Request: fold
Amino acid sequence: MSEQKVYCNQSPSLPGRQRVGKIIAEIARANSLWVVAYGTGCGAIELRPLHTARFDMERFGIAMRPTPRQADVIIISGYLAVKTLKRVIRVYEQMQAPKYVVALGSCTINGGMYFDSYNTINQLDLYLPVDVYVAGCMPRPESIIEGFTVLMKSIKAGEATGWQHYIENLDYYRSNQNEVIPRWDMPTYNW
Amino acid sequence: MAVTILVAFATAVLGLCYGLLLGGISRKVMARIHGRIGPPVTQNFSDLVKLFFKRTAIEHGGMFWLAPMFRLTGGLGVLFLVPIVVGRFSVVNISFAGDLLLVVYFMFFGCLGMALGAGDSGHPHAVMAVSRGLAQMSTYELSFSMVVLVLAVGLRTLNIGDIVAAQSGGIGQWNLVRYPFATAAAMIAFLPMQMAYPFSIVLAPQEIPIGPPTEYGSRFLSLMLAGRSIFGVAKLVLFMNLFFGGASNIADLVMKTLLLYLYPVFVSAVFPRFRLEQSVRFLLVVPTVLALVELIRVIT
Reply:
């Protein structure tokens, strides 16, 4: 099988308006959030207790998936090194729409304690469309659950449209990404 | 004809709903064992609907597309061949003299289709899982085939309807009592069929994440979830018919299938996972010897 088949070489397009079953689909989406198991920074340590009996995030229908093909949510858990950003972009683009980004910690908002680091980005929403920010350094598992509750509400209200924004403004995001990533070295479009 | 199609469709939908509900119950039970609250029992319905409405932009060739269909066809094939409730739903039950053999074939068919599709996806984890799965499947199918042979020789029939009829008249007539070793062998083979621990080497989440469906998402996965649910229900009904006297009414059916479904869940909760060679060795020795003992007992 040629490598060409694995990715798309055309710019992605937005879907037409969903007419049938929109409300049912949105309720189902909100109640079944599958998170791609990819910890990018130190905040990933706060995600572990969510699986345990103490916090139990499965009661909200949230589960971890080890492959981006099946995931709905990517959590950027804390500081994001430029090297990791490249992988995150690839993972995000391989996820099937509708997809959501949750950003944890102050590092994703303004760089946090790594604001003057030579190899981390300071503001995540220049590179990826963030749907929910959870502030803190690091946010406790309770705040992460609160963040997910907000995400679920906005999905039900049809407001979590970051992925559409990403497709509409792909040139803007690509130019920002290219500014910090010295060697792109991957397909133009990872869909 | 129209009525048959309608009843067949209704059976498939009911089978799907029941399978999804059983999946939800098993997740809830597992969570309770862990001391968690767990997802609502309707969680699998949400997953199915969500996956159905997700976009698909993955292309890996024809077999990749067909695999979920094969899985669904295998499940539906078994569901339509086994008598669900004796005396009722007979319109759907397309039974004939040797239908037990066809059911065994259908059980292979779904797994083989899935293996071909997963191989086509080209993902290394999928290919590893497929090779493990096929190795394990050939071992438990050996003991299960011997169990089928025991029933065929002992009851002089290969028709599931006749096997159920032979067990009517109380627990004393059940194949569980008549052929205890064969039942034990089949119940051990039932664990890897349900991908339960300690035989869950195919979907081994910590080694080869998710296994065969690694590249499957969206509607493919939704179809696979549906196929797996229907297949699960069909297998429960088959085992109920073969060893536990079939069902004479709906309450009987629900109680027996629920208990049968919970058995791998409880076993999963207490056992860690075997490695492939341990699993193959266990399945080649324990259930095979049990089935062989019963076969010798039946023949002599």
